Amino acid sequence: MQTSLILIKPDGVQRRLVGRILTRFEEKGLQIVGARFMCIPLETAEQHYAAHKERPFYPGLVAYMTSSPVLALALRGKNSIAVIRKMLGATFGSQAEPGTIRGDFAISDGYNLVHASDSPEAAEKELELFFPEGTVEFDMRDTPWVYDVGSDLR
Ligand code: IDP
Ligand code: MG
């Protein structure tokens, strides 16, 4: 089981796609263990994208991410980090496959609607950044139907 940090970015909020994007994660069988509607403080955005600091798009990226609220989510599931990255599709909306979230809803390269952690190490750091008080652990009653408990969750 893994928990991933997702951000429905400012364009997702402004384009009223929050519900549709969240629905796709719920329908997949992922469990919401954290949700926070927030304006990202400048320092948090800079820290979150620190790996891209030297890239030419970095100032625009930080401006975009702090321009309007986001919905931060912590989503839990088996292999959820890789599963969610696949659901997002390629980084650029113009290149993402149809059937993925970016492929279906985004045509922009930078304004690509959703962020998701790309590794367990990134997820740990990002969850600490956006959910410093931790996530909400609880049992989902449908687990025996979402998973083959005997093999998936062994
Ligand atoms: P990811 O979000 O798929 O992990 P990254 O390469 O980590 O993609 O880039 C972080 C974010 O920076 C992207 O989601 C996108 O919003 C923005 N970005 C990445 N590359 C470019 C670019 O070449 N032009 C404009 N924005 C970009
Ligand atoms: Mg990335």
Beta-strand content: 15-25%
Shape: globular
CATH architecture, please? 2-Layer Sandwich
Named once each, the bound ligands are: inosine-5'-diphosphate, magnesium ion
Report the end-to-end length measured between terminal Cα atoms: 10 Å
Radius of gyration: 15 Å
pLDDT < 50 runs, ≥5 residues: none
Strand order of the largest sheet: 2-3-1-4
CATH topology: Alpha-Beta Plaits
Average pLDDT, all residues: 98
Helical run tally:
8
Q: How would you classify the helix and strand content by structural class? A: alpha+beta
CATH classification class: Alpha Beta
The fourth-level CATH homologous superfamily is Nucleoside diphosphate kinase-like domain
Structurally, the number of domains stands at 1
Largest sheet: 4 strands, antiparallel
Number of strands: 4
Percent helix, as a range, is 25-40%
Helix-strand topology string = EHHEHHEHHEHH
SSE map:
Blueprint: E1 2-8, H1 10-14, H2 18-28, E2 31-38, H3 42-48, H4 58-65, E3 70-77, H5 80-88, H6 101-105, E4 114-116, H7 120-130, H8 143-146
Antiparallel strand pairs: 1-3, 1-4, 2-3
Protein architecture, described:
With 154 residues, the protein is an alpha+beta fold. It has a single domain, classed as 2-Layer Sandwich (Alpha-Beta Plaits), CATH 3.30.70.141. The protein contains eight helices and four strands, in the order βααβααβααβαα. The protein has helices at residues 10-14, 18-28, 42-48, 58-65, 80-88, 101-105, 120-130, 143-146, and strands at 2-8, 31-38, 70-77, 114-116. A four-stranded antiparallel β-sheet has the order 2-3-1-4. It is globular and about 50 Å long. The N and C termini lie close together (10 Å). The model has no long low-confidence stretch (mean pLDDT 98). Inosine-5'-diphosphate (IDP) is lined by residues 57, 61, 91, 109-110, 112, 115, 118.
